UniProtKB/TrEMBL annotation:
<keyword id="KW-0732">Signal</keyword>
<feature type="signal peptide">
    <location>
        <begin position="1"/>
        <end position="30"/>
    </location>
</feature>
<protein>
    <submittedName>
        <fullName>Bug family tripartite tricarboxylate transporter substrate binding protein</fullName>
    </submittedName>
</protein>
<dbReference type="InterPro" id="IPR005064">
    <property type="entry name" value="BUG"/>
</dbReference>
<comment type="similarity">
    <text>Belongs to the UPF0065 (bug) family.</text>
</comment>
<dbReference type="Pfam" id="PF03401">
    <property type="entry name" value="TctC"/>
</dbReference>
<dbReference type="InterPro" id="IPR042100">
    <property type="entry name" value="Bug_dom1"/>
</dbReference>
<dbReference type="InterPro" id="IPR006311">
    <property type="entry name" value="TAT_signal"/>
</dbReference>
Amino acid sequence: MSNESTRRTLLRAAAAGSAMSLLFAHSAFAQAYPARSIRLVVPFAPGGSTDVVARLIGQRLSDALKAPVVVENKAGAGSVLGTDLVAKSAPDGYTLVVAANPAIAPGPLMRTGMPYDPISDFTHVVLLGTFPNGFVVRANHPAKTLTEFIALAHSKPGVLNYASAGIGSAGFLTGELLKQATGIDMVHVPYKGSGPAIIDLMGGQLDGLFESLVTATGYIRSGKLRLLAVTGDKRSKTFPDVPAINELVPGVTGGAWFGISAPARLPPEIALRLQLEIQAIVNAADMQARLNELGMAPLPLAGPDYLGFIQGENRKWGPVIKAGNIKVE
């Protein structure tokens, strides 16, 4: 064998040995995970539904991994601020984010100058579930059903209005989809909080409101508000006699969603460990019951299925956003 051939053989052997060393080191790192506390970033203010769900999941995940899971609220820019922080963190499994529609899908379709790519800059680990809204009116509103509300809106174009948590919110998008699907002309009124919107709804300043069932249920039960429909794929277990919008207007569904995501290039072994643990947590009977109480429809899709859900959200809402020329500054 020539000296050159010998040199090449030695280089190949060294490269193979180096690759094996990296593989073993990577495997050992994954097996040791977690060796310290995990930060779970909630890109919203404390006290909201996202925060409540994150703390429920975080406590169970801490028990399962036998390591502290510390929930950290980083609100701002419609959840983009906290989500961006995680996108730029080390992909080691020690920084996770509660991903949601404003920051991942379809929110970026409405924004310019996003600081990250919502697909390629993340490892999307597990979808937790969806949060359908209810469409409510005041108790003495002339429309007793959604069909009557739509008919009334047709008869008074540009007169009826509806409120939501703001431009780009799940309620706003569902209202836009309803308008486009039925051809009605309603005026959107954005609010920053549920309290003022509900007060104005009951006071007659608003005709309708897309609101979380968690917030609205007490007012519905007390007879102050009337629930005309829910925005999920199916009827709510809390209000089984109230139709889903898509029973009356096929294809009109909407709601918020939450999932757990990590920075891109998360080691596959760590991603799989988190997927299995979080799916088991969400699938537990007591957790399912608790999430249902909070108005959440559990849907623990992992890995490629979670990514497929995100891409499906973009396919669904992209045309609605384009048709409505919707932009969030």
